[in-house]
Amino acid sequence: MTVKRIVPNLPTEDIESLSTFYETLLGLRVVMDLGWIATVASEGPVPPQLSFARKGGSGAPVPDLSIEVDDVDRVHQRALDLGVEITYPLTEEPWGVRRFFARDPEGRVLNILSHSKSSG
Fold it and tell me: pLDDT category, 6, cuts 50, 70, 90?
């Protein structure tokens, strides 16, 4: 299993203002904007990213962290085997990711995902 990226998700009602702040202060650029969530990133092979969200998508709450992995099904099975609390079931989302939410020992909600084969 390989972790490909970890993206903090910062809850906000003012996505545009927060995006502009990070763009202006740090030179990050918007790399995704779905209206309810936007992600800013820098250039490079492993760009640091922050996401700003009003909601978690598909009726889910905003997760604390998004962790992209190469095989979400394998990680989901590992979470089940370990007895990790799953707070959102393994789901193929309409925006091109397969994901589930799990709670860490401190209570943080993790959005663990892989991009769908067709979305890259």
Answer: confident
